Amino acid sequence: GENVEQHPSTLSVQEGDSAVIKCTYSDSASNYFPWYKQELGKRPQLIIDIRSNVGEKKDQRIAVTLNKTAKHFSLHITETQPEDSAVYFCAASKGNAGNMLTFGGGTRLMVKP
Amino acid sequence: GAVVSQHPSWVICKSGTSVKIECRSLDFQATTMFWYRQFPKQSLMLMATSNEGSKATYEQGVEKDKFLINHASLTLSTLTVTSAHPEDSSFYICSARSSRSSGRANQFFGPGTRLTVL
Q1: I need a surface site. Which of A85, A89, B25, B56 has the fewest CB within 10 A?
Q2: Minimal Cα–Cα distance from A22 to chain B, Å?
Q3: A41 to chain B: which residues are within 8 Å by CB?
Q4: What is the mean pLDDT of each run of 10 residues along chain B (118 residues)?
Q5: Alpha carbons B35 and A46: distance in angstroms, whole number
């Protein structure tokens, strides 16, 4: 089955700096890659996603890049703010966006004011 | 937007009892619901895929007789943890897949249920 690795497990940045989280996946058939933000004790919230027919997608301060050949994708957060502090999960899925998700291990992002 | 609810939000029970967790899609029909378990400071691990009107598909290592899943309608799936033990204490999260096609993600997460088994 699919295996998703995520790095780093923790990331501390100064407010205003950029943060980058990287994920790799094993199944070349995966074609949908969402990123979720989860605050303590709450549900994961979808923040951005990308499909395999696109190499990059941006939404304000958040961007995701995908390298299908290398089977890795990354989340980029620019101009970080304290409210960006949370755990971020990448995931991979085959088929359409509603198929089962395999999650990465998560990255705890801490943005210091 | 699509809303998924879970009930209860938290539960504390004694070892050996059974606990039922409900997952409801409030404003859409969900042909498929997924049940995840999340231990503290860990990732979400898929336990099973629940399809309306059919048996759930369990992931490897998940005991189907211990984690009973019922998806009796297009808006409700239940997870029953039978004979719960302290090691079952975890955060259980469901997600529901909309039966409508969507250009974006059509899988929506519930708020989770924190189970503590004493």
Answers
A1: A85
A2: 15
A3: 91, 112, 114
A4: 91 97 92 92 92 89 94 92 96 86 68 96
A5: 17
